[in-house]
Specification:
Blueprint lengths: L1 E5 L4 H14 L3 E5 L2 E4 L5 H11 L5 E3 L2 H18 L9 H9 L3 H12 L3 H19 L4 H7 L5 H12 L3 H11 L7
Antiparallel strand pairs: 1-3, 1-4, 2-3
Helix pairs in contact: 1-2, 3-4, 3-5, 3-6, 6-9
């Protein structure tokens, strides 16, 4: 029995959902982003309890096929960005088509219709969030970040970053550093 859950975007989300399932006595076989496989179908009351538990945490159960597909598109993109390896050059449309077993045009049109934005813009937004995260960690240079996230050049990354955020990567990094207080000053 599979349940589809909206807004699961990271390993912490998986952990929180698992804890809540355990707390409610619902045994899970497998939990991945956006999907929970239960050992048995929950009763109406158990499902209602699960909904009441998940909603305050920012999650919701998805019942219709289109919404599940949209959530799978988002989760595939998030996993692709989070696990992207510089050695792997991927074409987003190919990855989505192969992973979700649908024609890319269908996926693209459905996503745009439901979300009000394109898959490409969503992908760029996710990549730029990853860039922000890596800039804040301050462990990689901008060229290393560009390489890791498969940007063709640092200039292209910088231009895209500024176009979307209004800031250059270095200005963003400077602002983030200035706002952070040392622990002894908190």
């Amino acid at each position: 029995m599979k349940l589809y859950i909206k807004n699961m975007v990271c390993n912490r989300c998986i952990m929180v959902v698992k804890q809540e399932l355990d707390r409610l006595g619902l045994k899970s076989k497998n939990i991945i982003l956006g999907e929970v496989e239960l050992e048995k179908e929950p009763s109406y009351t158990e499902k209602k309890q699960l909904v009441n538990t998940l909603v305050p945490l920012g999650f919701e159960l998805i019942d219709d096929k289109k919404s599940r597909l949209i959530e799978k598109i988002k989760n595939t993109i998030i996993q692709l960005v989070q696990q992207q390896d510089a050695d792997i050059k991927t074409n987003l449309s190919d990855v989505l088509s192969k992973t979700l077993h649908h024609d890319y045009n269908y996926l693209s049109n459905l996503f745009s219709e439901v979300e009000g934005t394109t898959i490409e813009k969503y992908f760029i937004a996710q990549k730029l969030e990853k860039v922000k995260e890596l800039l804040v960690y301050d462990e990689l240079s901008l060229s290393e970040i560009a390489f890791r996230l498969n940007y063709s050049s640092v200039a292209y990354l910088s231009n895209q970053f500024k176009k979307v955020t209004g800031l250059t990567p270095s200005h963003f990094k400077q602002i983030r550093t200035e706002k952070r207080k040392p622990l002894d000053k908190v």
